Amino acid sequence: MSLYPLALRIAGRRVLVVGGGTVATRRVPGLIAAGAQVEIVAPELTPALQAHVDAGRAVWTPRRFAPGDVAGAWLVHVAVDDPQAAAQVSEAAEEHRVFCVRADDRDAATAWTPAVTRHGQVTVAVTDGGDRRRAMAVRDLVAHALEAAPPASPEFKGVALVGGGPGDPELITVKGRRLLAAADVVVADRLVPGILLGELRPEVELIDAAKIPYGPSAAQEEINRILVDRATQGKFVVRLKGGDNFVFGRGGEEALACAQAGVPVVVVPGVTSSIAAPALAGIPVTHRGVAHEFTVVSGHIPPDHPDSLVDWAALARLRGTLVVLMGLKNLPAITARLIAEGRSADTPVAVVQEGSTAHQRSLRSTLGAVTGETAAAGIRPPAVVVIGDVVAVAEQITPALG
Ligand code: SAH
Q1: What is the model's pTM?
Q2: Is the CB–ligand 1 distance for residue 354 below 6 Å?
Q3: Which SUPFAM superfamilies does UniProt cross-reference here (predicted)?
């Protein structure tokens, strides 16, 4: 069969979807993403479709299909199981000269949806004589090839602040990984998953921010200068950080420096260790009936230091979960202060070192004992300290963790 491939500009145009079950649930999001005016005719909807309707992204006519429904549609999707009902829609579509996609019968269809992979502005659509499985296999091959060698795209400009996640290279986001693969310059940090850097094309300029030979604040100025300088040269710069750039990552300062220099910035949030490291040790930072809040605090400045911006007395009064980052060195002062301000010395505490990596280890203790036990166990940074009753929940969860 010879097919004529085509890409449709469907935005603002009426598309009729007949059926409200699982097939429609899979098709409708793509139509919405393309801006189509989606109209669903079906006696019932799945909860996911109902959510689109409730949000105003699609319109629902709650009844069975009637041939007149096709009038005025640019495209029809048949997503019903009943072959007779489907044939009725096909017939009406044919009569109105509207293309009709049929999930139930590819030979009866006048249009097919291809298997698709999107990479920024590039969309690859694969059809294979209606054999959807084979089309998807080819699509996967192409997607893989594009991930390895992304085509240059005008979308990439300026500086992307990309969160690299807590350490496991699989915990970077899909978008983060795609932008990283397209970078001309990568400014990386000590805590980024190193293996991601091994995948960079050889011509990429890799700058190790940890090796910039100045004091901490001068080094940050130098990083800002490098980001702006390379972006101004027309290069696409990725600033890759561990976790999320805006959680104790100075991402805000870098975004400001770019804004002041007129350099466009893309923010790609990352999986922050403040949530991920506890989670991987079986600790949910919130838990029904246990903690309805969690607070993430930096422990890099001791509680009694004049530069401290943290209200430790207020934190000691909270029932919820406290997650302390960069807190190992000051752990004795922090735990002593929390106890002195009224938090019980029996409060469960966990310390999770190098969460998500092959070196992950964790220790469970109490607020009163954790300092000594952490030292005795030889726990080292990077580690998060989790304080609160949610730590006790982990006892029931950890046995199930792979
Ligand atoms: N932007 C990062 C945090 C940077 S501050 C994020 O969102 O995760 C550095 C601190 O993060 C470390 O001292 C440690 O407390 C914590 N940290 C980072 N990666 C970690 C990991 N894999 N396991 C445990 N703690 C981690």
Answers
A1: 0.85
A2: yes
A3: NAD(P)-binding Rossmann-fold domains (SSF51735), Tetrapyrrole methylase (SSF53790)
